[in-house]
Structure formats: structure tokens, C-alpha cells
Amino acid sequence: MSHRTTFFQIQHSKVMPASRMDNPKECSTLGVVSFWTLFLLVKDTSATIICPNISIERGSTYVISCNSEKTLVDFYWYKGVTSRSTPILRLENGQKGGSEEGSEHFGILSNGSMKINNAVIDQESYYTLIGYYDRENFDSATFLVNITVSPDPPCPVVNQCDNCTVCHIKAEGQGTLICSITRSRPFVPLAWNFIHQDGVSFTKHREHNVPEDETSPMNTSISLDYTLDQACGVDAFFQCVSTGSSNILQSNVTSINITTDPCIPPTSLPAEVNTFVFVISGAVIAFVILFCVISYWIYHRSKTVEFLRSCLRETYEKHCYVKPLPWGEDISISALHTSCKCTITNKDEHVLSVSTEELLSLRHIGDEKRVIFIGDLGYGKTTFTKQMVHQWIQDRSNEYLLIYILLKDVKKEMKVSDIVMAELPSDRGISVADIEETLKENKCLIILDGLDEMSLSFDVDMGSAAPDNEIGIGDGLAISEVLQGFKRQTYTGMRVWVTSREVDNTKSPFPKPYLKVQMNGFSKDQIKTYIKKCCRYYLSRGERSFDITNDPSFDHFKLISKLSEKAANTNITSSNGMNEEILVKESSMLLDEQRNVGEDNEIAEIVEEFFEINDLFNDFAEAPLLLILMVHIMSAKFTGAISHYNTLVITRVSTLVGMVITSLESRFFQKLDTKSASDKIVSIEDKLGKVAFDGDVELSVKGTNFWIENIQNDNLEIALGIGLLKQSKRGASESKALLSLASSSFTGIEFYHRCIQEYCAARYIVDNHETFPKLKAMINKYKTDENFGLLKFVCGFEKAPIKAICNALLKQEMFNNLIDCLYEAGVHNVDDKVYQTVGSHSIRVANLDKKYHRDAVRFFCKQFKNLQITVESITFFSDCHVWYLKTLHLPRLKSLTFFRAQYTDLEFKAIIHMFSSQKVTETLWFVECKVPEKLGDLEDSFRDLKRRSGITIKRKRNEMDLTFSSFDFELGEWKLEVKGVLSAPIEFLSPQK
């Protein structure tokens, strides 16, 4: 069932209440009801509890309060991800209790908050809160508590040093340096970072990482042996750096400067000199002084450049991460980066297809002064630039200086040197003037990321004040001058890369000439590579927390695809068309393989298969942003790495698309660092839904003024920034430019994707009951049973008018849409009477080439069987294969028909065996089908099928033919019968009527 809140709320699976169950609240008091029992009972679908993950310093006291849209009256706190035991704390009817209430380390406050006293490491765990809004309605949230231990001192400590910043060592001969962090939690890895090493050699480099058991603080140390190459003039500068992302340190870097006395050349004069000698000596001395001054200036400049490069490498580490999912964590760019396709268009309009891997090596673009990377949302522009930054940090042989600027954080009047200065720590000893001179006199690459976001970061009013620490506007090279290409003669070594969505060449702030790189997304092989990397990363986070074979999402998943392949390869040997013994044995083996999945390649194969057979993969193929979000959601789901996704029902298209939209909204507002946008998002989605529904959900381009009039200008910019809408160069009713957008002046705007349009329209429908008559009228307009995607999304919401939709679809005989809608609605949201009404009709099943619809038909048939409802008749059309029939649990049928199908001798025999043994129908029809005229080598058991099952098999060569044939089990052939009237049990109509 689809239930989605905004990004700013933690989502939980909303399960409809089961009938005839005890009050979970009363059972909870006894401590005998499991977490899953609670979830099968009454759960409030209109509110959500939010409990963020937290970190607590050992020995400290912390009060954990969860937020809820509604007031909670009773609280039950459990240690762990489920509640199979007695709650450790509870507040019920104002009375405190629980197994840990009043203990040394736990307590509960009168407002229901959990208090951790004198935190100890044993308290690190997942915790679950079950909160009640009243006697019947409740909700829950699970969160993680980490216990941290800060080392003392809170920085990397180097022997022979007294502080945590810069250590100066006057060295003689050789020595050993040891850098360590003691008794920290979590474990903090260390590494040496060499800036320059004039006159000293490091002859031995040993690393000692000594993590103790997981419940204790951990120690780590690294050592370094050094030897002086000369007695004087030694100057080495390097750092001991924490390479992790822990926040338990006040300083991640301790710098070491090894020096000796400077080398002073001996000075002596001859005892006897004359005037000529004095003149020559004076000239030489003057020349030496001048040479020394120039040399010192050059040396100082080179040291400044090297030091600035080192500082930027340290600072830019924060840019080497991506956060694809709102409930995930920052992931190193090196773990996920995958080469994608792109097209280069040079100044002469010559086009070349390359990969981003080639571009990272600076091939094709290394000498270009101005390059723009163009691509829609999610095409990998920022990921590419972050990989470039990561590569520059790792490769210390690069001669150029890299400057990385996110344009959403700056204004065009700001100076590059001021922006760089603001990025550096205040104690680095580098001035703005140093940076400015470095930019003028050295090779540098300036990357300006997000040209299209430059206006959004300042124009979108979300109700928050502007930052009070805004960078000043001073002398030097401004961002606008970099974009326009001014001052090239002053900054001769500068190259500029800009990323943006599609720009209007006539109004772009980054005008020609430039080399254009069009980002084209992933190929199929590159998608597989990306999936493997995602799975490898999520598996590295620990063991899977759930068994995938217990998840209904995996029914008929990998097992069926392999068995169908085996059937297609003619491994059919027995008289009933299948070697059942072999298939049963191999089915068990395949199931065991799935239970023991643990390697990244095996998980990746499952994720790949999901995309290969899932209809959304094809729908999102031309929308890489949506595709990448789906990859991460599915990888997290299948690996169990993020518990939030364990309850995600991947077979429901409304659930998946809702999750993708939430991730899009999260991605946008994280970029803007905006905290309170929940109401804004709901308003925008509601307005977009109304526009989509009023336009009968037809994906078309509308002019800019149309959107401004219907959703307002500020909402339009946000919707474009999120990716709910996109600009289009296709025709529209007007051609005015987008207002105040940095990348604009397109002819129109449309929904980013059909699924987003249908989802927004569906949400608007279920939230506004007055729309139901129009929805019914839209259904009545359909003359065929073609796919009506909007209905699936509507039925995915809990408030959907399921009964009214089903009745309208039955009236129009749109059976395949009806089946999809029932599948999307699930078990708990459909009254049994709906199935009884549907069962009284002759149902036509087609479109089985779609994976989603095949699953829907399985669910549909199984529901009738479980409810013990006899169906009038079912007709399968030409795309119904034998392997698929074997996966169905058919209900009792008055008749079963195959229309325009083609079956071999073995397949035909297998079908007869199948339905004779199942006894689901008395009459089996083959209408306009290509089936064997006669079966040979019949066993006695086959001839006896008619007597044991009572089934009658009939064939009509033409649906309008008045004659039909009956199958003779004794002879294995058809016998012609003649009737004066059409005696077939149903009207044989095509699936499109």
C-alpha cells in the first residue's frame, strides 16, 4: 500500500488493521505481543513519529525525544528493532514502568521521553518507540543510538610535540615519529600526508592500526622513521591526518615541521686588496644579494602555491562524497563513480562520442580554456566534477591548482580569492593577496558547479533569513568575470569548467566560445557496473538484517525466470510435458541459493534482474536521475543495509514512484540547506496534481505563463529545481522566456516524467473527493482496455475509491486495468464483495508481456482462490506461456479459454495434464489456437484423465464459427461436432474489444 510523507518525515509502512484481534495496547502491557503483531493491528495512517539517529558521549546524560504530528498519550520503548520482549520503559496512563525504569542507566520522563543516564557502551543499539495517540491508534519508529568516546587530547598526537596544530622539531641525524589516537570510539584511522621534504628521507614507514573488541574504546597509531640527508638547510613539512569522518575530534590534522640550522657559507677576505678588487667584490655582493632576493621570492611563491594546494586538498575532502538517499549516509565518490556516455562538440561543431573516464584523464579537453558540461537533472554532472576533485586530491603529481566552487552558495559579484579564503582554516597563514597572485601566475582549473542553480539559491524564498556571514565583495577576479571570460590576459594559466542544465546560448551567463560536453547518462553495461558498486557498498556496511526469501516481493522472482528459461530450452521429457522430479529438485536448489545470498555479485544479479523485468526500468531509461535513485533504493532493499527500506513493497508502482519523488525533494532541499519545507512541498504537489488532473493527465508542454498562473512563479522554480517539472524545447502555446532562471528561455515546461505526473494527479484525486465523478467520466471515455496508468496510482493510496473504480472498469469491460488496480490496492483495502462482483463476469486477460501485469494476474487469481469464489470464465490471449500457467493458483472456473495461442505437442500435453489434475474447470476451450491435430504415444494414465477429472476440451478454428471439435482422450485427436447455434461459453472477443 502506498503511503508517503514528505522528505522531512520518516516513512513507515502503513498496514491496514486485521479483523478479530485483541487490542495491541493491552497485550503490549503484558509484554507478550511482537512488533509484527502490533503492525497487523490498528496503525494510525495520518501521523508519523520521527526519531532521528543520535550519538551520545560515554558518561553523559541524554534525553531522547521523538516528534509526532499528533499528541502521543502512551509510550513503549524497546531495545532492538522489534518488540518481542517486555518494553524497557513505558509510560501508560501517566504511570511509569518497564524492565529498566529506575535503573542506573535508563529512565522515562513524564512527557514520555527516554533518558539515558551515565551512558555506557552496552547501551549502543537500535531502539524502537511505539506510541499511542489514543486507545486504538498508534505508530512506531526505530532509530540507532551510538555511544562515542572522545580521545584525550582530541586530536592526532605526535611524540616530541606539545599541541594539536603545528609541531616544530629541530632534528639531528635520524629519529622516529609516532602519531597516535588512544581510547577513542569509533575507531579513527590515521595516515601521513607529505607536503614537502627538503633534505630528509623517510626510510621506513610502518602502520599500526590496533582496534580492540567492538565494545571497548580503540587505539590506533602510525610510525615514521626519518634520516637527514644533510647537516643544514633541512626543511620538511608533513601532517598526521585522521582519514575518517568521525566528529569526536576537535582537530583532524597535526602538522610537523622538521628543520635544521640554515647553511651559512664562510666569508673571508684576502689580507691585501686594491681598489679594483673592492669594486669587483662590491658588484659580486650586490649580484648575490639580488640573486638571493629573487631566489627567495621564487622559493616563497613556490612554497605558497604548494602550501595552498595542500590546504585545498585537505579542505576539499568534504566534496568527495555523495548522498543519493535521504535516509542513507554520505558515500565516498570513489565507491560509486561509474563512467558514463557523453558527446563533445568543439568550437568547429565537430562531434565526438567519448566516456567520462577519458575526460577525467584530460584527454580531448586538457588544453581547452573554457568547457561547459551540459545535462539534465541526474545525468552525472556533479558526480563527474566531484570525481575530478577526488582524483586531484589523490594524484599529488598534478602541476595545476584546482578550485571547486558550488555556484548555489555564491553570488556572481563575489571574488574567487575571497571564496577560496573562506574555505581555508584561519590559522593557515595565507592571505587573499597570496591566493590572487597564485591564480595569476600558475596553472589552475576552476570548476563552477551548478550554473542553473545560481539564481535558485537566492531567489527561492523558503521563509529563512539570509546568512549573516556572507563573503565580502573585494578586489580580484569575480565569478561573473570568470563566466564571461574577462581578464584572460592577466590570468593566462586559468582554465574554466562549468556544469549546468541546458542553457540558452543567446542569454547564457557563460557565453561562447567554449567546448561543449553533453552528458548522456549510462549505457546498459554501465548501469550493471553501477549496480554492482552500489551492492558492494551496501553489503560492506554489515550483514543483511532480513531474509529476502521471507519477503513477498520476491515471489516468482529469480526462481521463475530460471525455470522459464529451462522450459524454453525444451527440457521436457515426461508424458505430462515436464520432468517434475528434476524441476522440483532444481527449484529447491535455486531457493537455497537465494537464502544464502551474501556476495555482492549475487545481490547485484538480483538487482539487475529486477530492472530487466520491471516495467519502471524501461519507463525510467531516458531519465537517469530517476533510474539512479531506483538503483540505490533497490540495492538498499535487497542488501538490507538500510532498515527503512526493509518494509518497502517493491511490486507496487505507486510505492516505488512515491519513494523516488520523496528522494528528489530531499535532494533539492539538502542542496539549499533548507530545513522547513514540508508545507511548501505539499502545496506544490497539490497544485501540480490539480494541473495534471484538469488536463486529463496528458503529458504535454505548456507555456511558462500557464504554469505561473496555475502554481505561481516561486513554486515553478522549486518544481523545476526538484525535478518534478522540466524545461522543454518542444512546441507550446507560448514562447516567452522563463522568468529569473539562470538557464532559461525555453519554449515551454512539462512534467519531468509521465509517472510523476500520474502520481501527483492520483494524490490530488484521493485528497479531493469532488474529483471522483470526473475520474469516472474519464474511465467511461475509454473504448478499449489499453493501459490507464493513472488508476494504478490512485488505487495505491489508502483513501482511494476502490469500489467505484472497479465498478466503472467492469462497466467498460476494462479487465486488465481492473486487475492492475486490485493488485496495487493489495489485500486489505478491497472488500470481498468487490471480488464477488468481478467473479460474475467473463474476464479477458492480455498484456502478459509486462512483468507488472503478470504479477497482478497471479495476485488476482490467488485472491479468488483464497476467497473460494467461482469465476464465470477467464480467457487468456496469445502471450500466455506454459511456464507462466504453472505459476498461477487458479480459482474454480466455469470455463477456461485460450485465444489465438500456439502450443507444441509437449506444451499442449502439459496443459491438459495441468488442468485435469487441478480440476479448476469442467470445460477447456482453444479458440483460433495452433495446437496439435493428434498426439502420439499416449500412456494409459493420459487416456484415463477424462474419467478421473471429468474435463471437456473443445476447439474452435474461428471465433464466429458455429462448429467446434472435442478432444478424444482415447485417440489423442479432435472429433468434429456441428451445432446450430454458437455454444461457446463466452463471447470470444479480442482483448481490445
UniProtKB/TrEMBL annotation:
Keyword Iron-sulfur: no
Matching SUPFAM superfamilies: Immunoglobulin, P-loop containing nucleoside triphosphate hydrolases
UniProt keyword terms in alphabetical order: Membrane, Transmembrane, Transmembrane helix
Transmembrane segments: 276-299
Domain NACHT span(s) in chain numbering: 370-534
Gene3D superfamilies to which the protein is assigned, alphabetical: P-loop containing nucleotide triphosphate hydrolases (3.40.50.300)
Pfam families, sorted: NACHT (PF05729)
Signal sequence annotation: none
Superkingdom, natural source: Eukaryota
UniProt-recorded name of the protein: NACHT domain-containing protein
Origin organism lineage: Eukaryota, Metazoa, Echinodermata, Eleutherozoa, Echinozoa
